[in-house]
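hi! just following up on the protien thing from before. the input was this:
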Amino acid sequence: MYAEERQQEILRLARAEGRVDVMVLAEGMNVTAETIRRDLTALERAGLLRRVHGGAIPVERIGFEPALATRDAVLIAEKERIAKAALAEVPEEGAIILDAGTTTARLAQLLPVDRELTVVVNSPVLAAALGPRPNLSVLLLGGRVRGKTLATVDDWALRPLAEMYVDVAFMGTNGCSVERGMTTPDPAEAAVKRAMIAAARRVVLLADHTKIGNDYLARFGALADLDLLVTDSRLDEDLADEVEAAGVRVVRA
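and the predicted 3d structure came back as:
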């Protein structure tokens, strides 16, 4: 078993059982305890597990949310492919929403220079990056800036969204499952995401394979709210089939 396959199995067991033990994993996978510890460290750096004494716990069980810089440093190639595939959903003209997130930020970098677009963002970072572009009209939603994600939240962000209607909302998420829909650790951020979905004619979710089948505290939408999921080629076939059976088209980049 390759390291990546072993780590995926460790993650699956952690999510199914709520915790994994180093010695049990080492015995079950016929590898050394040190190998398992290296795997757990890699999964923790990816923001998927939190190390505890003797083992690890999946982050969704403890409400842990990796900081923006940590999330931006993992699955870079996958996020780039997802962003490139999502370009096909950007209209020739009109208005779009770009949710705060590391994958949506990559889409922002790729927006065509020959299209006149109004871009609504809830990220000062995205606003600063897109603001100088002469073909774009950038609207930054106000509000409290969350340190973890640098996204604006609360009433000052929600009020303008209630008066908007855009062509496409490009959304990020921490988790997405058939049972729970789209989820994120923070209720305030979930409220803004929910309002973004309500303000859009079409909703496109950009989420790498580690997000699918995962659930967090605050729910902000059902799969029925989605028109399209753009993910990467490492998404499990069965999970992709489950999402498509729920009525959502899936593109694996």
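The mean pLDDT is 91.
The radius of gyration is 19 Å.
cheers
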